[in-house]
Amino acid sequence: MLLDLNDLCVSYATRAGAVHAVEDVRLSIAEDEVVGIAGESGCGKTTLIKSLLRLLPKGARVTADRLAFKDRDLPKMSDRDFRRQIMWNEISLVPQSAQASLNPVYRVGDQIIEAIQEHADMSNAAARARVEELFDLVGLEPRLITTYPHEFSGGMRQRAMIAMALALDPALVIMDEPTTGLDVLVQERIIRKIRELRERSRNSILLITHDISVIAEMSDRIAIMYAGQIMEMAPAIDLFEEPVHPYTLGLKNAFPSIKQIGKPLISIPGSPPSLLGGVTGCPFAERCPFAVEQCLAERPALKEIAPGHVAACHRSDEAKSMRIKAAEKETWQSSKSAA
Ligand SMILES: Nc1ncnc2c1ncn2[C@@H]1O[C@H](COP(=O)(O)OP(=O)(O)OP(=O)(O)O)[C@@H](O)[C@H]1O
Ligand SMILES: [Mg+2]
Prior knowledge:
Elements lengths: L2 E12 L2 E13 L4 E5 L6 H8 L7 E4 L2 E4 L2 E2 L5 H8 L4 E4 L13 H12 L4 H14 L16 H13 L5 E5 L7 H17 L3 E6 L2 H5 L4 E6 L2 E7 H6 L4 H9 L38 H5 L5 E4 L2 E3 L7 H8 L2 H5 L6
Parallel strand pairs: 3-9, 3-10, 7-8, 8-9
Antiparallel strand pairs: 1-2, 1-4, 1-5, 5-6, 10-11, 11-13, 12-13
Helix pairs in contact: 3-4, 3-5, 4-5, 9-11
Adenosine-5'-triphosphate (ATP) binds next to strand 1, strand 2 and helix 1.
């Protein structure tokens, strides 16, 4: 395992109390693997990766039973060692709203050169050549390295940020919403580019998105997150062909699928629970058309459904019938939260 974490919890201390943004997350990423994490806004995706990369604000509390990268116990590493040995060299990040994180007063190429030289011993000429090579790799003309961010479109800036994340050939590249905010055609081009890059190198990728259809085509495994918890995780094919958790069923209904163009979208009524003070029972119960009393009272544990396929639902045995009912709009309209 490249990355292996168990029982990861993150909470933010706020004036109103602790916000439990990530709860008991168990996740691993193997070498040469693409793992996708999907879930609605506010479910803790960014918090999860920030906790791995030590990017959380002061006042955030992280606990984990295990948090290891290449079998190294990350919490035991000093910040200095982490910055020098892990960040960028081993794990890199394309941050959420990456397009906005380029400094407008410096040339794009210079910003990437500087980032490379901060983490690796490389001459100016070598770093420059590397950036040209990276631009070419992500589909930007190498001559563009001398231009300023405002001369780039949103999609081009996103490519530049992906180039930056690949600069030191890290074992794991984390991309937080790499296509959000771009128009559909540009999104498709970026996704195609990421797939191409994957075919050429063996970096693992952790891809974060709220749009489940974006990761459908590229991930080996997919985790569905809700209210800070993993609701379901499975090989991508299983998750799409035999989803179990009602939240997964709802998410699939809510986003356009490439395979079923024109299928009417059904949104999940209601909104995620407040994470202040934590949630009892299944966090999705309030919005779930299949919820029974047990769901409100008792938090379901992740249970193995098939090899490599886990789901946290008390009614997982009834997945087949839930799948059929979930495809009908009325099912979601009649749920309690729709009233
Ligand atoms: N600095 C903070 N202080 C307090 N609460 C925070 C802080 N940052 C995030 N949160 C809360 O933690 C929860 C998870 O937020 P996070 O940004 O990780 O979600 P996300 O899944 O990345 O959402 P999005 O899809 O909008 O990016 C939310 O309830 C959010 O309001
Ligand atoms: Mg986020």
